[in-house]
Specification:
By secondary structure, this protein is an all-alpha fold. 70% of the residues lie in helices and 0% in strands.
Length: 229
């Protein structure tokens, strides 16, 4: 699809871009900051960034021409998806549930495609997984930066990047074991999506850094002998 002999078909890549665009527009449509909301152009831009950001970051890391700029369909799909997301925002009574669900699927798609492309280009397993994770979370990072929000994966949350990491690792392991690329990608997408959704539903997250520090201090001080008078 981009001159590199990749197995990932154009339609599959466009599905990821489209879902990312819808998710970004839904997120931006529900945004309220400092008593202000984004206008239509702002919502559209966020949708386009979410749809195309992961692929752009992936290809920059791989030092190849960005696939999203090699065809008219990527930008058209991202723009159309953003417009659809704006229309859907008024239909969802529980907007957050739709955003989280789409977000989980988009993370899985971009993670799987990023890892697959990196492995196809000959990267070792660990760097390929890193590229996949960056591709999975890249759109969200760009979205938060543009909107002036704290970057989600840098704070206590619901295993956003961890879900992508596990999914990408499963894909790389499956391909190393000889599994077909399509089957490995589908399994990785499913694993990432399930982990992300379970983490949100059951409020599972990594320990907070301050909690780890307090625990470390407690362990260290427990070894200090206390001399009673």
């Amino acid at each position: 699809m981009d001159g590199q002999g990749l197995i990932i078909p154009l339609w599959a890549d466009l599905i990821a871009v489209g879902l990312g665009g819808v998710q970004g527009a839904l997120f931006a449509s529900g945004f309220r900051g400092e008593d202000r909301r984004l206008d239509l152009l702002g919502v559209a831009i966020i949708g386009i960034v979410m749809g195309m950001g992961g692929g752009l970051i992936r290809d920059l890391l791989l030092n190849v021409p960005p696939a999203t700029l090699q065809s008219n369909w990527y930008l058209l799909t991202a723009t159309g998806a953003a417009l659809i997301g704006m229309l859907l925002a008024g239909l969802f009574q529980r907007l957050n549930a739709a955003i989280v669900g789409l977000d989980a699927v988009v993370i899985g798609l971009f993670g799987a495609f990023g890892t697959t492309k990196a492995l196809t280009l000959g990267l070792p397993v660990v760097p390929a997984i890193f590229v996949g994770v960056c591709s999975a979370v890249g759109g969200g990072i760009l979205r938060d930066m543009i909107m002036g929000l704290p970057v989600a994966i840098m704070h206590v949350g619901s295993l956003y990047a961890v879900a992508a990491l596990v999914g990408c690792a499963v894909l790389a392991g499956a391909q190393s074991a000889g599994a077909p690329s399509l089957a490995a990608s589908l399994i990785a997408i499913a694993v990432t999506t399930v982990i992300r959704l379970l983490a949100v539903v059951f409020d599972i997250s990594l320990p907070e850094q301050r909690a780890l520090h307090r625990r470390k201090v407690a362990v260290e001080t427990s070894a200090i002998p206390i001399i009673k008078p």
